[in-house]
Amino acid sequence: MVSFRSALPLLVVSAVLVSGSLAGCSADADADAAARPTSSPKPASEARPAGGATDPMEEDRSAAAICGQISALSTISLNATVGRSQGELSEAQYQALIAAERFGYEHLSSSDDELDDAIDYAHEYLDAHPAPQSGPALEMNPEWELVGRTLNTACQRAGSNVVSTAQYGG
To answer: Which region ranges are annotated with the description Disordered (predicted)?
Structure first.
């Protein structure tokens, strides 16, 4: 049986992915309702494409939304690393969480120019350091730490903070 402490990081990953996919749902529904005339229905030819046609992580590209996603990814990394070091996560669980973290970073983009430049820097790093066939998808090293600091600085300049929520104390 899985304890709550070891299952929580997996729940965090699930929550990040679900919230990312739902981020634009209410905004799109409100926009559609405002644009739709009340007297006659929209012709079928003007219908929006299926919901799966766009990347759900790109629905809200504002600095606040993207810095929130970076906070979630940072939280995943922190808790996966500490959970593994305390023996609460297996190596396979740790690697799965780090792979999810990498996936999140690979799909970031922002409408804020400075933040988007920092994201481009992160993408360049990820392109230059592909995930290995086995082992963690991201290695904590000085280069990756610089990428993280660059993203944090860009978020702060955009008026948003990046925070990590420590499951194991702080």
So the answer is: 33-61
